[in-house]
Amino acid sequence: MRAFLCAALGAALLVGSANAASGEDDLLIFAVVSAPPKDRSRVAVKASVNDTVSDTKLLASESILNNLIWKKLEICHALRIEGTKAADGYKVVTVRVIDASMLPMTLQSFAGDCLIKKAIEIAPLVD
């Protein structure tokens, strides 16, 4: 009985450490779409990772490309993303559209300027 408990505890520790190790590369990324997405597999954004803002690309996998949020993506959309760093951007694991007020302060001014620019330049074309 004691050996069984020790084996079960050891297995639980191994599984827990494996999950922790695989989660170390996942990053929390806040982003604002900075250009109209033409190629949905590579979307240009202004991203904030650990309060560092940069212009980069979001790289979508097949499962993300089939996501309804990703299909409806437009310029100025604010996103909360979990992903991993890649050579030419960030690989998206999960994505959520958020309100711009939920962005870090480092991105809120960019998002506000983007929405104003979109309202001035794109909205009159609808009429």
From TrEMBL:
Organism: Nitrospira japonica
Superkingdom of source: Bacteria
UniProt keyword annotations, A-Z: Signal
Signal sequence residues: 1-20
Name of the molecule in the record: Uncharacterized protein
